[in-house]
Amino acid sequence: MDPDKAKMAEHFINAIPHCKALNMRLTDIGAGKAEMELPYDANIVGDPETGVLHGGAVSALMDTCCGAAAMCHPSSPSGTATIDLRIDYMRAATPGQNIRTKAECYNITRSVAFVRATAFDDDESRPVATATGAFTVQRK
Amino acid sequence: MPRSRPEPVQVVKQRRDAAMSALVHGVPYINFLGIEFERRGDELTAILPFDEKLIGNPLLPAIHGGVTAGFLETTAVIGLAWSGLWDDIESGRISMESLTEGHLPRLPKTIDFTVDYLRSGLPRDAYARARVNRSGRRYASVHVEAWQDQRNVLFAQATGHFLMPVKDD
Q: What is the ipTM, given to two decimal places?
């Protein structure tokens, strides 16, 4: 991928206030692909008895990562917005572990980018969640 | 048959509000987003007061899609838990003492959640209400609607499926 575009995507994501509030990091970005990480934080726990992170924080990570994958697709001019996003929760994330997600824009038309993503904790063999979504493609 | 004398209104309200508060304020993520619930009888409205840290697109600016998803999921889970707890709260089977001591009832677990983004979330307060379409012994299906300035102009809606907590009795 064009290094300028990758730099721009990274800059754009680091400027998102909600991502900063959750301390999300973009760990890799390429043509139609992105990887991000969400550090474990007691403030975003959804189940106080077990310490498992809330689904909303996982949603925010996967939505951002899918958007980044859509934006950095070679056929995408620039910005994007979520049309719809479905998240399937496979299992509870292990308390204390960071969540990593990989998103791929597997198809893009002039108007819509189709993206899927998988989220893991330290055990990469068992996904925590998967997501599929449709994103807008801004006109030039 | 003579009916028993109804409880004083403040006793009823105090018990319901204590249960609601324990349910909501015990979850760190709900406090992190700043979500509050308003109760009228058994009807709940979730409120997400606007804050800078909720922004996902600083250029527009617009609320982050993940915040919208988290807000709607919270509304669905609390709405579902609340409708299941209502009888226990009314009958006093769940005591106020145990709730305020932090003995929270187990919350339903999300199986899947689909958010339909209808328009961008503006930098102002948002509201949401959940409707439990089906709640069985094991599974439940819940629909949620969210709006900002006008009740009939939705900015997002969602449907989710949930696994119900196992009842002890």
A: 0.93
